[in-house]
Design goal:
The chain is built from 5 helices and 11 strands. By secondary structure, the protein is α+β, with helices and mostly antiparallel strands. It has one domain. The strands form 2 sheets. It has a 6-stranded mixed sheet with strand order 1-2-3-6-7-11. The protein has a 5-stranded antiparallel sheet with strand order 5-4-10-9-8.
């Protein structure tokens, strides 16, 4: 019953947040039309939104990732999922998943709510997925290298420093061994680091 309640609560939060997001897209993305996707198959492929550029009708597939666990807080980082546990098996996370068709991640941070079921403001940072993966590869950070690193490391709960990234200014691995059921391993990256390296742009 608790998991069902949590799922419904998360779904309601997402639906309420989408009202704010659509208003912000309409205000700031004048050169694009946007279509919110409700088809589950497309959502599982990493498509929550399709942006169509007016000048040439080019489409961009957007996967929205929102920090809904941190409402009324503004974190300087975002967690990119490497893998997680389900039914005792390790599953591939969304960052390196070849099934995902995502062109850009829309990272929703700094989400504020002044009253229940109503979000009043947030930050939206667009991250170019292809550029991010290529950039990480240039630092010898790939799915295989991360798996090797994790297998050869004594994985402990919490923050894990890794070669190729400055843990204070760039990023690190984070293993949620005890506080989350799926025990995800995430690559946590600083938003300013992504922007400064041309991998991301802040919309608002």
């Amino acid at each position: 019953m608790g998991l069902v309640s949590n799922f419904r609560s998360d779904l309601q939060k997402e639906q309420h947040l989408s009202i704010l997001l659509d208003a912000l897209y309409k205000k700031h993305l004048h050169q694009y039309r946007f279509q919110r996707i409700s088809d589950l198959k497309k959502q599982l492929q990493g498509i929550d939104l399709i942006l169509t550029r007016s000048m040439d009708q080019k489409e961009f597939l957007i996967d929205e990732k929102a920090q809904l666990d941190y409402v009324n807080d503004d974190l300087p980082t975002f967690a990119f999922e490497i893998n997680y546990q389900k039914n005792g098996k390790t599953k591939q996370g969304w960052l390196f998943d070849p099934i995902k068709k995502t062109d850009f991640y829309a990272l929703i941070t700094g989400i504020y709510s002044d009253e229940p079921n109503k979000f009043t403001s947030c930050k939206i940072t667009f991250v170019n997925r292809e550029k991010l993966v290529f950039f990480l590869k240039s630092k010898a950070i790939t799915e295989n290298s991360l798996v090797d690193f994790m297998e050869n490391s004594l994985l402990r709960d919490g923050k894990i420093k890794m070669p190729g990234l400055d843990s204070k200014t760039e990023g690190y691995l984070y293993y949620s061994k005890y506080n989350k059921t799926e025990k995800p391993i995430n690559l946590v990256l600083k938003l300013d680091f992504l922007i400064e390296n041309g991998l991301a742009k802040r919309l608002v």
